[in-house]
From TrEMBL:
GO terms for biological process: methylation. Residues 10-311 form the Histidine-specific methyltransferase SAM-dependent domain. One of its GO terms (molecular function) is methyltransferase activity. This is Dimethylhistidine N-methyltransferase. Pfam families: Methyltransf_33 (PF10017). It comes from Algoriphagus hitonicola. The lineage of its organism: Bacteria, Pseudomonadati, Bacteroidota, Cytophagia, Cytophagales. Keywords: Methyltransferase, Transferase.
Amino acid sequence: MTSSTQTFLNDVLLGLRQTPKTLSSKYFYDEEGSRIFQEIMDMASYYLPQAELDIIHSQSQAIAELFRDKSVDLIELGAGDGRKMVHFVKILQAKTTDLTYLPLDISESILQVNRRLFEQEIPGVRVHPLAGDFFHTLPEIKDRTHTRIMLFAGSNIGNFRKEKAAEFLRFVREHLQSGDFFLLGVDLKKHPRTIRNAYDDAGGITKKFNLNLLKRINRELGGDFDLSAFDHYATYHPITGASESFLVSLKKQSVNIGEEQVQFEKDEIIQTEISQKYDLPMLENLASDSGYVIDSIYKDSKERFAWVLMNVSGN
């Protein structure tokens, strides 16, 4: 068993021994999970990608103007293949005197795709990819004299509960200094039904995505989950802003995972995902609790999503 498979097994068993049972959303994205997630991205009810692209195309000029004639290092956490960032980086390069783009992602192969894309689309930009968990790769970026913009796009911060989100922002702040910025993508509170429909669609794609995590455990860890014995359920709490996804056991059952056996009661749940939504007071608290000051908030035309530009408060 490889070390990554052993870690996967350890995390799964640890989560399923808890009350309530949990499985980490970071294990959603095997090859099949990534393919299903692309289906989710294409759903009309899944508003997040379109909302963020709206911001990128309508607000990049205003953001880049703040860095006119500066030397800038743009460090993107969880960069992926970089497609959605080409426009923003192109605009930023035109405003700055010197720009280096440092995409960080756990996948080395996807970063090679990223690098080729940027070298083709923006030949003048320097691209320095760093593969690995950014909790480990971020400290590898040595101090520079350039202004740093730390970019955490998408709604990735929503995968952290509020106290963990502040902890993460403080971790990032350790790698910034006065005059640097953190550009954070956040999903905003909105009509509860809009959010519910994004995470529990009528076509069952989000259900398929959630159940694929059990399929992955079966394939990679020797599990024997009966997928027909579990259902998908999603909730949204409009006061706290927490959207959560669960798998529900439809009967009393035993599941084997490798040499371990896990018991489920009828209607017992496994929590698989949280996606935190924010409003302005929550964002202000998050920033101040983490050592930042909000500079500007850039929203899409329907005010569904935002990029929050924060500067580092005094060290």
